[in-house]
Amino acid sequence: MTVARQRPASRLAAPAARPVEHNSSGRFLLRTLFWSGLAVALLPWWLGTGTGSIDTAADLFQSAGRVTGLVAGYLLLIQVVLMSRVSFVERWIGARHLGLWHRELGGAVLVMILTHAALITVGYADADRVGFVSELGTILTEYEDMVTAFLAAGMLVCIGLLSIRGLRRALPYELWYFLHLTAYLALLLGFAHQFSNGQELFRPGFGRTVWIVFSAVTAAAVVWGRVVAPLRLNLRHRLQVADVVAEGPDMVSIYITGRRLDDLDARAGQFFRWRFLARRYWWQAHPFSLSAAPNGRWLRLTVKTVGGHTRQLRRLRPGVRIFVEGPWGDFTASRRVKSRAVLIAAGSGIAPVRALLEELPAGAVVIYRAGAVHDLHLRHELEHLAELRHAELWFVVGDRRDPGPRRLFTPGGMRDLVPDITERDVYLCGPDGLVEQSLTVLRRVRVPRRQIHLDPFEF
């Protein structure tokens, strides 16, 4: 069945800021820096490869191996910078694009590393006139730092395989997160062989200096984004649990207080990585979105029970200290390009959508998909906000095979519910099935891509 409710406009809604056009200058600048950096990274090979120096098959394989090695090393450094959580990188790229770049470069890193290892081994084997396996054994036993380099390559291959969506979902979040962080260890293990065996880097000179600078910049980004900035944030605000409120049998809200919250640079729709400093909690940090717009007095996150850690959160006690990293994400009102919006949510996705409703312009349409009426969490808050913000609130309840839900996720059904949907921003947050189904319908009704905003806090 479908339950729909439209709240009357009984009071004036607060004015909203004018739409902000997407600014792609940051992404253009970073792309320019990326390609310029790659050119500089390859310059030592270009300067060191004289005319006529590649005249045999062995020379060709070895030269191609050196190029792919330099490309692999450079891409790995870029990957680490993307993982470093330096705030300006996310602001310039945007959280969605940051996730896309991270995934695409991850695949390229693996291809380049494996290609580099294969080409170098084949080139050396051809020059020594021995078999591939024999040459591989020689490289591992006689070349300095090669064992750790091969170990690093193996670790990165494992990380890449575990990042495949199907495999990643099968792993507990904590395990996947810690395995992903081993990329830093892989970088350290593979670092030495570049300077001890790299044809372009083992001698003092331009190439070695450039790569030392690249490595130092990467290390500085990691230290700043992962250590210094979080420490400053937590020392300034000293967050702690104020209250824990059950929103239902499988959902809980955690209210958080601290110092100088009015100075916290956070927006509705963003998320933090939360680490509760209590027994059984302190060793895990999970990403949860704010479920209410920051108000200078308290923060709130609303968590759906999906595993052991989230189940334990309802047993938190007031006064527990919290260590956070963030805020992150561009699933915010500032990303809109139109004067009105549509918000589509299901499951735990209702938390950031409920917060966004406070900051988006009046006249938004909220579509809340649930399997049953008792799954409509934060319902009374949504109804109150809908009245305050002159918003239409639609509850779409029932099995996906029921006529109402089936009708909604068709071009005709979406247009019936929101006739001017092509003139609105669309915010999507919820299970993958809902997001993919919604994206299919939005493409069919020709909503421009720049008006569609996703919440990508998995990265």
UniProtKB/TrEMBL annotation:
Membrane association type: Multi-pass membrane protein
Keywords on record: 2Fe-2S, FAD, Flavoprotein, Iron, Iron-sulfur, Membrane, Metal-binding, Oxidoreductase, Transmembrane, Transmembrane helix
Cofactor: FAD
Domain spans labelled FAD-binding FR-type: 234-334
Keyword Transmembrane: yes
Main subcellular localisation: membrane
Ranges that cross the membrane: 28-47, 67-84, 105-125, 145-164, 176-196, 208-229
Keyword Membrane: yes
A matching Pfam family: NAD_binding_1
Subcellular location: Membrane
Gene3D superfamilies: Nucleotide-binding domain of ferredoxin-NADP reductase (FNR) module, Translation factors
SUPFAM superfamilies the record matches: Ferredoxin reductase-like, C-terminal NADP-linked domain, Riboflavin synthase domain-like
Protein name per the record: Ferric reductase-like transmembrane domain-containing protein
